[in-house]
Write a structure and sequence with these properties.
single chain; alpha/beta; about 550 residues; 22 helices
Length: about 550
């Protein structure tokens, strides 16, 4: 008499229907009441979670408590109860067994004992719910005093007493309901889910794949020139060669210190910011991660209690201070690195065939081919942006030309805004180009000898406010006079983006050489900077790729 007529339903429909009933509120509410799950603290997961997860739990708990405190006592009880039911519903899963009328109830919990206990109570609560449905129907047909109704009520009471989650004899576990418990839940020997080792291996593999994808993405969106092939394809001018990037030991030490300071500044700012955020969110100070951050952020912790609204103001002030200090320190280290780089790129011994000297040998050969047939030539060197190494390239090329060709080479420092030739050649800058153009000195008096066959006309001590290039007529006469006395004249000019000197002077020289530093100037900026020279119809001798780096060893490039 306890069984319903289910002959008209298929096995799959029965399993699906009953599996949804298992996760219904009437079944789960009985489980929550019986096991007092609504009395557990909101942050009970903390005793099983990692220190990082603890922070997330603290944040969620604080948000929930803000809502709860606004409710009355009875509303708070109802809130906790509904919260426990929702939480339990997330942990219960029902899976029908294919081609049978069976289904499995899976419950996840933080311990194996709790998982088995809750699973047993859920299955028995489901059986009780099934009996209650039958009881309701029988009461309507026969009334409350009928023998069948009384017997069914006794069975419900008996099953209710067994809602403890403990294992029962198989006969008692099966029960009198129309649904039967075939197997009781037992404590699983191992935790469910993927192993940590497998997750770490997969994360490592996917991080490599993601890193490669990011590298290709950054390279795709990087519009700077980074290889001779890109220079040849983008610029419609001859490619003369490249100058490799050279870094001395002092320069490497400066860069190492700079990176260490930048990393320390980033870590300090991150620690202070995290400390401020966790403090504002009210994370438990006993959390291990919070304690570590508090130790690192000792100045913040000591000041936040003394200053009004210190949790907001002090971290912001300290982060801004660190950023400003790091900026000035980085600028100082950049200057030291630049000086170290300049000292490391001086050609000293031409008998030693290094990659750096070989690069200037190739550049000299290409320059001879481009200027073939001209006894006296003047070449203007410029770049699209400042700090692309024009002065250093020109100075070393002039040294090599003077030694290898035996010709008289004159270097003119026309970069009056940021003169460098007197520093590179260690000459006196009291008298130079400014004095010659203003007729305060002759060319012979202003030119200084740097080495055998190499002469330098420095910029002069005249300030920018008192002297502003170019006076094109005077400069034209100067070039004519210099070409008569010297066989090769090399002119250092400022960048095209900042000043128009190179454009104005390009009409009075034999040709223009453009120096492009690898990975510095974007293609759009480079194209805009060259537009002025193209309008003047300047003769482009070629382009030099400076500071070239090799992603793989240079010998592999040579073999290829």
């Amino acid at each position: 008499p306890y069984y319903r007529n289910i002959a008209d339903f298929s096995a799959s429909e029965i399993s699906m229907t009953q599996s949804e009933i298992v996760r219904s509120n009437p079944v789960l509410e009985r489980v929550v009441k019986r096991l007092s799950l609504d009395t557990q603290p909101l942050d009970h997961e903390k005793q099983f979670a990692s220190a990082l997860k603890d922070i997330i739990i603290d944040i969620k708990t604080k948000r929930t408590l803000k809502k709860v405190l606004k409710l009355g006592p009875r509303e708070q009880e109802e809130f906790y109860f509904r919260h426990a039911v929702r939480d339990l519903k997330k942990k219960v899963k029902v899976e029908p067994v294919r081609d049978t009328e069976l289904f499995a109830i899976n419950v996840s919990a933080f311990t194996a004992k709790d998982a088995a206990r809750i699973a047993n109570v859920v299955s028995r609560s489901y059986c009780i719910f099934d009996l209650e449905q039958q009881l309701a129907e029988l009461k309507q047909q026969y009334g409350e005093k009928h023998l069948t109704v009384v017997q069914l009520q006794n069975n419900i009471d008996k099953l209710s007493q067994n809602l403890t989650g403990e294992s029962l004899p198989n006969i008692d576990a099966i029960g009198p309901a129309s649904v039967k418990i075939i197997e009781q839940a037992v404590e699983p020997p191992e935790p469910a889910g993927k192993s940590k080792a497998l997750i770490l291996i997969l994360a490592f593999i996917f991080s490599i794949i993601f890193g490669i994808v990011l590298a290709f993405a950054f390279d795709y969106f990087d519009s700077t020139l980074k290889s001779p092939q890109e220079v040849k394809s983008f610029l419609t001018m001859p490619y003369l060669g490249y100058v490799p990037h050279v870094r001395s030991m002092p320069g490497s030490s400066v860069i190492l210190v700079k990176r260490a300071i930048n990393a320390a500044a980033v870590v300090a700012c991150a620690m202070i910011a995290i400390y401020g955020v966790l403090t504002i969110m009210g994370v438990d100070p006993a959390n291990p991660i919070f304690m570590v951050i508090s130790i690192v952020s000792v100045p913040v912790a000591s000041l936040t209690d003394r200053v009004p609204l210190g949790h907001l103001i002090v971290p912001v002030i300290l982060v801004v201070g660190i950023i400003i200090a790091n900026k000035y320190i980085s600028q100082l280290l950049d200057q030291l690195e630049k000086q170290a780089s300049k000292s490391s790129t001086k050609l000293k011994d031409f008998r030693k065939m290094s990659d750096y000297i070989q690069a200037f040998r190739n550049l000299t050969h290409q320059l001879y081919l481009s200027l073939k047939g001209n006894e006296h030539t003047s070449v203007l060197f410029t770049s699209s942006l400042a700090q692309e190494g024009v002065s250093t390239v020109l100075a070393n090329l002039a040294r090599y030309l003077a030694v290898s060709s035996g010709k008289k080479v004159l270097v003119i420092d026309a970069n009056t805004r940021d003169p460098n030739m007197h520093k590179l050649f260690r000459l006196n800058n009291a008298k130079g180009l400014a004095d010659v153009l203003e007729a305060n000195a002759s060319l012979d008096d202003a030119v200084q000898k740097a080495q055998e066959g190499l002469f330098v006309l420095c910029s002069g001590a005249q300030t920018q406010s008192a002297f502003d290039l170019p006076d094109t007529m005077m400069f034209s006469k100067l070039i004519e006079e210099a070409e008569k006395k010297y066989e090769i004249v090399l002119i250092d000019c400022p960048s095209l983006k900042d000043y128009k000197d190179s454009v104005s002077l390009s009409a009075y020289v034999s040709g223009v050489v453009l120096v492009v530093s690898e990975g510095m100037a974007r293609r759009e900026v480079l194209k805009a900077a060259l537009s002025g020279l193209e309008q003047k119809k300047a003769h482009f001798i070629g382009v030099i790729l400076n500071n070239r780096t090799f992603a793989i060893p240079n010998m592999i490039y040579k073999r290829a």
